[in-house]
Amino acid sequence: ERSPLNVLNCGKSFSRSSNLVMHQRTQTGEKPFECPVCGKSFSFHSSLVRHQTTHTGEKPFECPLCGKSFSQSSNLVIHQRTHTGEKPFECPDCGKRFSQNSNLMTHQRTHTGEKPFECSNCGKHFSQNSSLVIHQRTHTGEKPYECPDCGKDFSSRSS
Predict the structure, then answer these.
(1) pLDDT digit string (tens) for 57-92?
(2) Does 104 reside within a domain?
(3) 138: phi > 0 → left, psi -120 to 50 → alpha, else beta; which?
(4) 115 in a structural domain
(5) With the C-alpha atoms ordered 159, 133, 114, 100, is the resulting torsion angle positive or negative?
(6) Spatial CA neighbour of 100 closest among 158, 108, 46, 127
(7) Where does it live in the cell (predicted)?
(8) Taking burial as the number of CB atoms within 10 A of a residue's CB, which of 34, 43, 53, 146 is the most buried?
(9) Count of structural domains within the chain
(10) What values do phi and psi take at 117, rounded to 5?
(11) Which residues of 116-152 are buried (b: 16+ CB within 10 A; e: fewer)?
């Protein structure tokens, strides 16, 4: 019988070395798989393969209700919840429900106060990556959104 493989930092155990490696990459942020088209990197080969469909434009998964197509079956499943209203992910703290697990995880940070996204320029922390991206524009001066009425540029869509 093989002994479990332990992670030194968090104490989790894995019976397969491949699962240990996958877990460690999520902890270290290591992304050894790079897209040859755009250079974006991924922690897992499967994530790279899934990403590459964005370049081919291939969308083989079609919604039978509205005809919208998706490159990944998981995105079709999420989309179909817009038709059914299904929200299978419930916050254990307040009971609010979500159609996507990622939205639940983001929401839970409102309860924990966790801010895992750090600005490399000033050290400020954010609970959502999208908030960090908008903040970083204060350092770069980037203003990618233009008002259609006056032509003025803005750093975020809601400005």
Answers:
(1) 889 999 999 999 998 899 999 999 999 999 999 999
(2) yes
(3) alpha
(4) yes
(5) positive
(6) 108
(7) Nucleus
(8) 43
(9) 1
(10) -100, 115
(11) ebeeeeeeeebbeeeebebbbeeeeeeeeeeeeeeee
Q: Domain of 125?
A: 89-140
CA–CA distance, 96 with 15 (Å, rounded to integer): 35
pTM to 2 decimal places = 0.59
Residues in the chain, pLDDT under 70? 1-9, 159
How far apart are alpha carbons 91 and 51 in whole angstroms? 29
Residue corresponding to tokens 């307040």: 94
